[in-house]
Amino acid sequence: MMTNNSRETESMLEVNNSVLGCRSFETLEQMVLAPLADYLDADTSCFLEVVPEAVATTRIGRSTCHNVARNAHSQYVSRHFRADPAVNRYGLTMGEPMGVYCTSEVWDYREFIKTKFYNDFFRPNSIHHVMVMMVRTYWQPSTWLTLGFHRPRHSSPFGETQKRRARSVIGAAGGALRGLFLQEALDVRDQVIDQLESDNPDTGIAFFDINLVFVHANARGLSDLGLSKGADRQETTSNARLEKIFAVCRSLKATRDFLTSSKIELCAEEQIVATVQARMKPGGDLLFAVHTAGRKTETQLMRRCANFGMTAREVDIIKLIGAGLSNAEIANSLFISPRTVENHLRSIYGKASVNRRTQLIHRLGESV
Predict the structure, then answer these.
(1) How many CB atoms neighbour CB 237 within 10 A?
(2) Do 79 and 111 meet the contact criterion of CB atoms below 8 Å apart?
(3) Are 251 and 227 in contact (CB under 8 A)?
(4) Please, which pLDDT band fits residue 236 given cuts at 50, 70 and 90?
Protein backbone atom coordinates (compact mmCIF):
# COMPACT_ATOMS: atom_id res chain seq x y z
CA MET A 1 0.00 0.00 0.00
CA MET A 2 1.30 3.45 -0.92
CA THR A 3 1.80 5.77 2.05
CA ASN A 4 1.05 9.49 2.12
CA ASN A 5 4.78 10.26 2.02
CA SER A 6 5.35 8.03 -1.00
CA ARG A 7 2.37 9.56 -2.83
CA GLU A 8 3.74 13.04 -2.05
CA THR A 9 7.17 12.08 -3.34
CA GLU A 10 5.68 10.56 -6.49
CA SER A 11 3.64 13.71 -7.15
CA MET A 12 6.70 15.91 -6.65
CA LEU A 13 8.76 13.80 -9.06
CA GLU A 14 6.01 13.93 -11.70
CA VAL A 15 5.86 17.72 -11.45
CA ASN A 16 9.64 18.05 -11.61
CA ASN A 17 9.78 15.78 -14.67
CA SER A 18 7.13 17.84 -16.44
CA VAL A 19 8.80 21.14 -15.58
CA LEU A 20 12.27 19.98 -16.63
CA GLY A 21 10.85 18.64 -19.88
CA CYS A 22 9.74 22.14 -20.99
CA ARG A 23 11.81 23.12 -24.03
CA SER A 24 10.03 26.24 -25.33
CA PHE A 25 8.02 29.22 -24.15
CA GLU A 26 5.10 27.89 -26.22
CA THR A 27 4.77 24.88 -23.87
CA LEU A 28 5.36 26.83 -20.66
CA GLU A 29 1.69 26.93 -19.67
CA GLN A 30 1.08 23.24 -20.35
CA MET A 31 4.30 21.81 -18.90
CA VAL A 32 5.10 24.26 -16.10
CA LEU A 33 2.18 26.43 -14.99
CA ALA A 34 -0.59 23.80 -15.17
CA PRO A 35 1.17 20.98 -13.26
CA LEU A 36 2.59 23.39 -10.67
CA ALA A 37 -0.84 24.95 -10.08
CA ASP A 38 -2.34 21.50 -9.60
CA TYR A 39 0.46 20.42 -7.23
CA LEU A 40 0.16 23.62 -5.17
CA ASP A 41 -3.68 23.53 -5.06
CA ALA A 42 -3.97 26.83 -6.93
CA ASP A 43 -6.89 27.86 -9.16
CA THR A 44 -4.82 30.04 -11.50
CA SER A 45 -1.16 30.81 -12.14
CA CYS A 46 1.11 33.04 -14.19
CA PHE A 47 4.71 33.54 -15.24
CA LEU A 48 6.38 36.97 -15.40
CA GLU A 49 9.87 38.13 -16.30
CA VAL A 50 10.28 41.23 -14.09
CA VAL A 51 13.00 43.52 -15.45
CA PRO A 52 14.07 46.68 -13.60
CA GLU A 53 15.56 49.09 -16.17
CA ALA A 54 16.40 52.01 -13.92
CA VAL A 55 15.57 53.46 -10.52
CA ALA A 56 11.78 53.23 -10.03
CA THR A 57 11.34 51.86 -13.57
CA THR A 58 10.32 48.26 -14.13
CA ARG A 59 8.90 46.40 -17.11
CA ILE A 60 7.52 42.94 -17.79
CA GLY A 61 9.38 40.93 -20.45
CA ARG A 62 8.20 37.41 -21.24
CA SER A 63 4.92 36.35 -19.63
CA THR A 64 2.10 33.82 -19.85
CA CYS A 65 -0.76 32.56 -17.69
CA HIS A 66 -2.87 29.52 -16.83
CA ASN A 67 -6.67 29.74 -16.28
CA VAL A 68 -6.47 33.55 -16.25
CA ALA A 69 -8.42 35.32 -18.99
CA ARG A 70 -5.96 36.37 -21.70
CA ASN A 71 -7.30 39.92 -21.89
CA ALA A 72 -6.97 40.27 -18.11
CA HIS A 73 -3.38 39.01 -18.24
CA SER A 74 -2.60 41.47 -21.04
CA GLN A 75 -4.02 44.32 -18.97
CA TYR A 76 -1.89 43.27 -16.01
CA VAL A 77 1.30 43.15 -18.09
CA SER A 78 0.65 46.48 -19.79
CA ARG A 79 -0.74 48.46 -16.87
CA HIS A 80 -1.76 46.87 -13.56
CA PHE A 81 1.59 45.33 -12.61
CA ARG A 82 2.98 48.76 -11.72
CA ALA A 83 0.61 48.88 -8.70
CA ASP A 84 1.19 45.27 -7.63
CA PRO A 85 2.91 45.18 -4.20
CA ALA A 86 4.47 41.82 -5.14
CA VAL A 87 6.51 43.67 -7.77
CA ASN A 88 7.07 47.02 -6.10
CA ARG A 89 7.58 46.28 -2.41
CA TYR A 90 9.20 42.94 -1.89
CA GLY A 91 10.34 40.90 -4.85
CA LEU A 92 13.04 43.21 -6.11
CA THR A 93 14.77 43.40 -2.74
CA MET A 94 14.96 39.69 -1.96
CA GLY A 95 18.56 38.83 -1.17
CA GLU A 96 18.47 35.14 -2.05
CA PRO A 97 18.85 33.71 -5.60
CA MET A 98 15.41 32.10 -5.26
CA GLY A 99 12.61 32.08 -2.74
CA VAL A 100 8.95 31.38 -1.92
CA TYR A 101 6.57 33.66 -0.04
CA CYS A 102 2.87 34.33 0.43
CA THR A 103 1.61 37.85 -0.10
CA SER A 104 -0.08 37.82 3.31
CA GLU A 105 3.43 37.76 4.80
CA VAL A 106 4.36 40.98 3.04
CA TRP A 107 1.44 43.36 3.42
CA ASP A 108 -1.66 43.92 5.55
CA TYR A 109 -4.63 42.44 3.68
CA ARG A 110 -7.06 44.63 5.55
CA GLU A 111 -5.48 47.60 3.83
CA PHE A 112 -4.64 45.80 0.59
CA ILE A 113 -8.28 44.96 -0.23
CA LYS A 114 -9.06 48.69 -0.14
CA THR A 115 -6.53 49.53 -2.86
CA LYS A 116 -7.43 50.44 -6.42
CA PHE A 117 -5.17 47.65 -7.71
CA TYR A 118 -7.02 45.00 -5.71
CA ASN A 119 -10.46 46.22 -6.77
CA ASP A 120 -9.53 46.89 -10.40
CA PHE A 121 -7.64 43.66 -11.02
CA PHE A 122 -7.66 41.04 -8.25
CA ARG A 123 -11.37 41.19 -7.40
CA PRO A 124 -12.71 41.03 -11.02
CA ASN A 125 -10.42 38.07 -11.74
CA SER A 126 -11.26 36.15 -8.54
CA ILE A 127 -7.73 36.48 -7.14
CA HIS A 128 -7.24 36.98 -3.42
CA HIS A 129 -4.61 34.66 -1.93
CA VAL A 130 -1.27 34.65 -3.75
CA MET A 131 1.90 32.60 -3.38
CA VAL A 132 4.99 33.62 -5.31
CA MET A 133 8.10 31.72 -6.43
CA MET A 134 10.92 34.02 -7.53
CA VAL A 135 14.21 33.11 -9.20
CA ARG A 136 17.04 35.48 -10.09
CA THR A 137 18.71 35.20 -13.48
CA TYR A 138 22.48 34.69 -13.59
CA TRP A 139 23.08 36.96 -16.59
CA GLN A 140 21.13 39.94 -15.15
CA PRO A 141 21.03 39.61 -11.35
CA SER A 142 18.40 42.34 -11.01
CA THR A 143 15.94 40.44 -13.25
CA TRP A 144 13.41 38.09 -11.64
CA LEU A 145 11.66 35.08 -13.17
CA THR A 146 8.41 34.97 -11.21
CA LEU A 147 5.72 32.31 -10.86
CA GLY A 148 2.50 33.42 -9.17
CA PHE A 149 -0.21 31.06 -7.86
CA HIS A 150 -3.68 32.29 -6.95
CA ARG A 151 -6.77 31.30 -4.96
CA PRO A 152 -10.13 33.12 -4.79
CA ARG A 153 -11.40 34.88 -1.66
CA HIS A 154 -13.70 32.05 -0.54
CA SER A 155 -10.75 29.59 -0.44
CA SER A 156 -8.34 29.18 2.44
CA PRO A 157 -4.95 30.94 2.24
CA PHE A 158 -1.86 29.10 1.02
CA GLY A 159 -0.33 27.34 4.02
CA GLU A 160 2.87 25.66 5.07
CA THR A 161 2.05 22.53 3.07
CA GLN A 162 1.89 24.51 -0.19
CA LYS A 163 5.01 26.51 0.72
CA ARG A 164 6.91 23.31 1.45
CA ARG A 165 5.80 21.85 -1.88
CA ALA A 166 6.82 25.05 -3.67
CA ARG A 167 10.29 24.89 -2.13
CA SER A 168 10.62 21.26 -3.26
CA VAL A 169 10.09 22.19 -6.92
CA ILE A 170 11.52 25.70 -7.18
CA GLY A 171 14.95 24.37 -8.13
CA ALA A 172 13.55 22.50 -11.13
CA ALA A 173 11.30 25.42 -12.08
CA GLY A 174 14.16 27.92 -11.85
CA GLY A 175 16.47 25.70 -13.88
CA ALA A 176 13.87 25.20 -16.60
CA LEU A 177 13.06 28.92 -16.85
CA ARG A 178 16.70 29.96 -16.94
CA GLY A 179 17.34 27.32 -19.59
CA LEU A 180 14.59 28.69 -21.82
CA PHE A 181 16.02 32.20 -21.73
CA LEU A 182 19.59 31.03 -22.30
CA GLN A 183 18.55 28.85 -25.23
CA GLU A 184 16.58 31.71 -26.76
CA ALA A 185 19.59 34.01 -26.44
CA LEU A 186 21.83 31.43 -28.11
CA ASP A 187 19.34 30.85 -30.94
CA VAL A 188 19.00 34.58 -31.62
CA ARG A 189 22.75 35.08 -31.50
CA ASP A 190 23.40 32.22 -33.92
CA GLN A 191 20.76 33.46 -36.38
CA VAL A 192 22.07 37.01 -36.36
CA ILE A 193 25.69 35.90 -36.63
CA ASP A 194 24.99 33.51 -39.51
CA GLN A 195 23.12 36.19 -41.45
CA LEU A 196 25.59 38.99 -40.88
CA GLU A 197 28.69 36.91 -41.53
CA SER A 198 27.29 35.52 -44.79
CA ASP A 199 26.11 38.94 -45.96
CA ASN A 200 29.30 40.76 -44.98
CA PRO A 201 32.33 38.50 -45.58
CA ASP A 202 34.81 41.41 -45.55
CA THR A 203 33.38 43.07 -42.46
CA GLY A 204 34.35 42.65 -38.82
CA ILE A 205 31.37 41.74 -36.63
CA ALA A 206 31.05 41.89 -32.83
CA PHE A 207 28.17 41.72 -30.36
CA PHE A 208 27.74 43.11 -26.84
CA ASP A 209 24.78 42.59 -24.52
CA ILE A 210 22.72 45.23 -22.72
CA ASN A 211 25.39 45.46 -19.98
CA LEU A 212 28.16 45.87 -22.60
CA VAL A 213 29.50 42.40 -21.90
CA PHE A 214 31.34 40.87 -24.88
CA VAL A 215 29.25 38.12 -26.52
CA HIS A 216 30.88 37.16 -29.83
CA ALA A 217 33.03 38.43 -32.70
CA ASN A 218 34.38 36.99 -35.90
CA ALA A 219 38.14 37.01 -36.59
CA ARG A 220 38.08 40.38 -38.35
CA GLY A 221 36.04 41.92 -35.52
CA LEU A 222 38.42 40.63 -32.86
CA SER A 223 41.39 42.04 -34.74
CA ASP A 224 39.82 45.46 -35.39
CA LEU A 225 38.66 45.81 -31.77
CA GLY A 226 41.89 44.48 -30.27
CA LEU A 227 40.21 41.59 -28.46
CA SER A 228 41.03 37.96 -27.79
CA LYS A 229 38.41 35.30 -28.48
CA GLY A 230 37.65 34.75 -24.79
CA ALA A 231 37.75 38.43 -23.81
CA ASP A 232 36.79 39.04 -20.17
CA ARG A 233 35.52 42.16 -18.41
CA GLN A 234 39.04 43.41 -17.56
CA GLU A 235 40.17 43.20 -21.17
CA THR A 236 37.13 45.11 -22.43
CA THR A 237 37.44 47.89 -19.85
CA SER A 238 41.08 48.64 -20.66
CA ASN A 239 40.55 48.97 -24.40
CA ALA A 240 40.53 52.47 -25.93
CA ARG A 241 38.73 51.33 -29.08
CA LEU A 242 35.97 49.70 -27.08
CA GLU A 243 35.50 52.84 -24.99
CA LYS A 244 34.50 54.62 -28.20
CA ILE A 245 32.10 51.78 -29.04
CA PHE A 246 30.62 51.73 -25.54
CA ALA A 247 30.00 55.49 -25.57
CA VAL A 248 27.79 55.02 -28.64
CA CYS A 249 26.09 51.97 -27.08
CA ARG A 250 25.23 53.94 -23.94
CA SER A 251 23.69 56.68 -26.04
CA LEU A 252 21.61 54.19 -28.04
CA LYS A 253 20.55 52.47 -24.81
CA ALA A 254 19.44 55.77 -23.27
CA THR A 255 17.39 56.76 -26.32
CA ARG A 256 16.33 53.18 -27.25
CA ASP A 257 17.09 54.09 -30.84
CA PHE A 258 16.78 50.97 -33.00
CA LEU A 259 16.96 52.73 -36.36
CA THR A 260 20.12 54.82 -36.33
CA SER A 261 23.45 53.28 -37.32
CA SER A 262 26.18 55.38 -35.67
CA LYS A 263 29.54 55.46 -37.45
CA ILE A 264 32.78 56.30 -35.60
CA GLU A 265 36.50 56.20 -36.35
CA LEU A 266 38.22 53.53 -34.26
CA CYS A 267 41.80 54.03 -35.36
CA ALA A 268 42.98 56.84 -37.64
CA GLU A 269 46.39 55.26 -38.15
CA GLU A 270 44.95 51.97 -39.41
CA GLN A 271 41.94 53.70 -41.01
CA ILE A 272 39.43 51.50 -39.18
CA VAL A 273 35.84 52.68 -38.87
CA ALA A 274 32.97 51.07 -36.97
CA THR A 275 29.17 51.13 -37.31
CA VAL A 276 27.13 50.49 -34.14
CA GLN A 277 23.44 49.60 -33.98
CA ALA A 278 21.07 48.54 -31.17
CA ARG A 279 18.83 45.53 -31.73
CA MET A 280 15.89 44.31 -29.62
CA LYS A 281 15.89 40.63 -28.66
CA PRO A 282 12.55 38.77 -28.34
CA GLY A 283 12.60 39.03 -24.56
CA GLY A 284 12.97 42.81 -24.70
CA ASP A 285 16.66 43.20 -23.94
CA LEU A 286 19.11 45.05 -26.16
CA LEU A 287 21.91 43.54 -28.22
CA PHE A 288 24.52 45.86 -29.74
CA ALA A 289 25.86 44.88 -33.16
CA VAL A 290 29.19 46.39 -34.25
CA HIS A 291 30.51 46.26 -37.84
CA THR A 292 34.13 47.24 -38.50
CA ALA A 293 35.94 47.90 -41.76
CA GLY A 294 38.86 49.82 -43.19
CA ARG A 295 38.26 53.07 -45.04
CA LYS A 296 39.71 51.33 -48.05
CA THR A 297 36.78 48.90 -47.95
CA GLU A 298 34.28 51.77 -47.95
CA THR A 299 36.09 53.41 -50.86
CA GLN A 300 35.93 50.13 -52.77
CA LEU A 301 32.18 49.91 -52.13
CA MET A 302 31.67 53.41 -53.52
CA ARG A 303 33.68 52.52 -56.62
CA ARG A 304 31.75 49.29 -57.14
CA CYS A 305 28.43 51.10 -56.79
CA ALA A 306 29.62 53.65 -59.35
CA ASN A 307 30.50 50.81 -61.75
CA PHE A 308 26.86 49.68 -61.63
CA GLY A 309 25.56 53.23 -62.08
CA MET A 310 23.99 53.54 -58.64
CA THR A 311 22.64 56.94 -57.65
CA ALA A 312 23.59 58.65 -54.37
CA ARG A 313 20.26 57.67 -52.81
CA GLU A 314 20.71 54.07 -53.97
CA VAL A 315 24.17 54.01 -52.36
CA ASP A 316 22.59 55.22 -49.08
CA ILE A 317 20.12 52.34 -49.23
CA ILE A 318 22.86 49.81 -50.06
CA LYS A 319 24.84 50.89 -46.99
CA LEU A 320 21.79 50.43 -44.76
CA ILE A 321 21.13 47.02 -46.30
CA GLY A 322 24.70 46.10 -45.42
CA ALA A 323 24.01 47.21 -41.82
CA GLY A 324 21.11 44.74 -41.66
CA LEU A 325 18.17 47.21 -41.72
CA SER A 326 14.74 46.15 -42.98
CA ASN A 327 12.81 48.13 -45.59
CA ALA A 328 10.75 49.83 -42.87
CA GLU A 329 13.88 50.73 -40.89
CA ILE A 330 15.55 52.10 -44.04
CA ALA A 331 12.46 54.23 -44.73
CA ASN A 332 12.51 55.67 -41.21
CA SER A 333 16.25 56.28 -41.30
CA LEU A 334 16.12 58.16 -44.64
CA PHE A 335 12.74 59.84 -44.00
CA ILE A 336 11.14 58.31 -47.07
CA SER A 337 8.17 55.98 -47.50
CA PRO A 338 8.50 52.18 -47.59
CA ARG A 339 7.09 52.25 -51.14
CA THR A 340 9.91 54.58 -52.20
CA VAL A 341 12.42 52.15 -50.66
CA GLU A 342 10.86 49.30 -52.66
CA ASN A 343 11.11 51.36 -55.88
CA HIS A 344 14.79 52.07 -55.22
CA LEU A 345 15.42 48.38 -54.48
CA ARG A 346 13.89 47.34 -57.80
CA SER A 347 16.22 49.77 -59.53
CA ILE A 348 19.24 48.58 -57.51
CA TYR A 349 18.49 44.90 -58.18
CA GLY A 350 18.02 45.60 -61.87
CA LYS A 351 21.35 47.43 -62.20
CA ALA A 352 23.19 44.66 -60.31
CA SER A 353 21.24 41.83 -62.03
CA VAL A 354 20.22 40.24 -58.70
CA ASN A 355 16.93 39.27 -57.05
CA ARG A 356 17.58 39.60 -53.31
CA ARG A 357 19.77 41.28 -50.68
CA THR A 358 22.32 38.52 -50.16
CA GLN A 359 22.94 38.35 -53.91
CA LEU A 360 23.37 42.12 -54.00
CA ILE A 361 26.03 42.12 -51.25
CA HIS A 362 27.98 39.32 -52.91
CA ARG A 363 27.62 40.94 -56.34
CA LEU A 364 29.05 44.22 -55.07
CA GLY A 365 31.84 42.29 -53.41
CA GLU A 366 32.74 40.47 -56.62
CA SER A 367 32.76 43.51 -58.87
CA VAL A 368 35.93 45.58 -59.08
Answers:
(1) 11
(2) no
(3) no
(4) low
